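Hi everyone, sorry if this is the wrong subforum. Our group has a chain we'd like a structural model of before ordering constructs, and none of us has done structure prediction before. Sequence below.
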Amino acid sequence: MNALSSHTQITTVILESDPSMRLLITHLLEMESDIRVLGHAESAEAARALIKRVDPQVVILSADLADGRAFVFLKNLMRLRPTPVVMMCDTDSDSTHMALKLGAVDVVKDPFSVPPLELDTYARNLAGRLKAASITKTPIKVSNKLPNPRAANAEPQTRDADEKPKQVDSIIAIGSSTGGNTALRDIVRALPGDLPPIVIVQHIPADFSASFADGLDRISKVKIVHARQSQPLYQGHAYIAPGDTHMTVSRAKHIRLVDGELCNGHKPSVEMLFDSVTRHYADKACAVMLTGMGNDGAQAMLRMHQAGITTYAQDEKTSVVWGMPGAAVKLGAVDRVLPLNRIARAVSATAHALLDKSNTT
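Answer:
Right subforum, don't worry. Here is the predicted structure as tokens:
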């Protein structure tokens, strides 16, 4: 999919019940020449009529829509008139998990929760997320049922709570961006619980990365955690990078969090994670590049491939945006290009082979 032209103007509507919030969001987006607000609505009924009339490229949907039916509205929108949605919601895991499960492309906090001196940065970030959302593919796959945040999201897990975690000599690394929220859900749901440690960089706002990890943990046999500094890398565990910090791995098989400049326009950066895996695990690793805008991690995946690491990329048909995986494929960095529903099985087979190799050497 082609990248957006710098002169393309993205159209959006704001679905929010609070008039002052609508005014602030509009004002912030008016600071960005690439975004045009076509209208506002404060109820689900008004929102349906507005979207039908102006046909926006992206919808900004507040979880606090006046009639309390924001998530029902999101579910129905994805079913009847699939349109990319950026959801404004609380940073708690229930709201984030529900929004992403029902088809939202991205989640952001509302501007009232942002310090005044940081609103310019917030506006630029929001505009960037709207641009990324605008080129996602539709229809967007959604759950058939509206999830119950306390019950229906949880699935039986088969973890042995009494088994002491152990470190192994192999690792799995995954990078993703736009559309990766949903892709990662599908993958971790299908993974067995005995794999080598999995380290994941997903481009996501800092306020939502912890709740995103918590939401994934509910549906996976793998124990999924929000990464912490110097955390040991254990078999059967997965580590989600914090949304405002680079994550790498150390020679001692620990998480290393690094503050610093953006890399390829991102923090955390897939490139920094992948390079650290190549440096410390050599060919005892496998790597996956999932859907995402841009090219973060593509060059690093080429270095992985050259080091003998098995590399996978999501195919164009099942990617929301074939930017990052497409860039890796074009560089010749990918061993196998697979649809999303085949990646978990392929990664599991490779990872088990790595474990078997370690046990015999």
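For your construct planning: The radius of gyration is 20 Å. Residues 1-6, 139-157 have pLDDT under 50 and may be disordered.
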